[in-house]
Amino acid sequence: MPLSKKEIEELIRIVGLTKDDEINCDQCLSFVAEFAEHKLAGKSVPEGLKAVEQHLSICVECRDEYEALEKALREITS
Amino acid sequence: MDNLGRSNEAWLLQLSGSGSVQQTAVSDLRAALLRGLRKALSAWAVADNTFLEDAAQESLLRILNRLQQFEGRSQFLTWATSIAISVAMSELRRRRWKDVSLDEVLAVSDSRVEGAIDEDAGPDVKWERQAILDRMHALIQSDLTEKQRAVLLAELRGMPQDEIARQLGSNRNAVYKLTHDARKRLKRGLEAAGYESADVQAAFAG
Question: How far B9 CA sits from the closest chain A CA (Å)?
């Protein structure tokens, strides 16, 4: 069975976003709190956290966790 | 970002202390984590009260064991919540996929690249998209190892990296590296054929 249209589009998207140097999931987790505070405060992402943004654009699981983290933080601090 | 009325230093001091001061800090942290988890996971039917209580407790233990790893680059509560979310969602993924084998996921694929040509697209666009897909197909076969093909395809089918890693006897970071290397090979292969990332994205946009 061939890849579905959705799968191919996702493959093309993530290949296009691929960088030679990327952080892994553990590294993303260690920086994601700082990243979330910048985003929730409406600040631009500093250069040192760009790798987190890039990782989240590629890694579905970390992206899901980040979206859940934003929801949790909004609730806790409301 | 609110830190529930405590400075980072106060959190660390109280959580690593003893007696009623520690108990109050632990209790406050646990309540905050539970509240955050309840909101964040409200769309998951399996994330019932028991699950949330267990996840908050497991997260609390992990956070207390890692207090020395907190570097103060964010509010303590933000850091703690990021760990709790990771703990809870890892468990949700594990439950969702624990009975699905990698072979099962891959069985529905022969890695052929088809189906992404929109019939409504103009002839030039269709031709360009087909050329890119043909090249991608060839690269998948020629430039990726069998293991890279399998893992990449499993991920495209939604299988979590930690479950792939578990079934391969590996770990999540190793799986990420495997697919990262695969993506780099595909990207270089496309570039060598004259397809820069921006061109590829543009060809499939809209």
Answer: 17
To the nearest whole angstrom, how far is the Cα of B83 from the nearest Cα of chain A? 8
Q: What interhelical angle do B146-156 and A5-17 show, nearest 10?
A: 110
Please state, in angstroms and rounded to a whole number, the distance separating the CA atoms of residues B123 and A75.
50
**Interface confidence (ipTM) of the complex:** 0.93
Chain B residues within 8 A of A4 when measuring between CB atoms: 115
Question: Which one-letter DSSP state was computed for residue A49?
Answer: G
Candidates 1.20.120.550, 3.30.465.10, 3.65.10.10, 1.10.1740.10; CATH matching B8-97: 1.10.1740.10
Domains of chain B by residue range: 8-97, 104-203
- The 3-state DSSP composition of chain B as helix, strand, coil percent (nearest 5) reads 70, 0, 30
> CA-CA distance, B126 to A65, in Å (whole number)?
36
Write out chain A residues lying below 8 Å of B186, CB-based.
11, 15, 18
Summarised one tens digit per residue, pLDDT across range B53-106 is: 999 999 999 999 999 999 999 999 999 999 999 999 999 999 999 999 999 998
> pTM of the full predicted structure?
0.89
* pLDDT band at B202; cut points 50, 70, 90: confident
User: What is the DSSP annotation of B115-176?
Assistant: S---TTS-HHHHHHHHHHHHHHHHHHHHHS-HHHHHHHHHHHTT--HHHHHHHHT--HHHHH
Q: Which of B86, B132, B153 sits opposite A65 (nearest CB)?
A: B86
Tokens of B168: 């391969």
Averages of pLDDT over runs of 10 residues in chain A (78 residues) are: 74 93 95 97 94 96 97 92
Of the candidate CATH numbers 1.10.10, 3.30.70, 1.10.8, 3.30.450, the domain formed by B104-203 belongs to 1.10.10
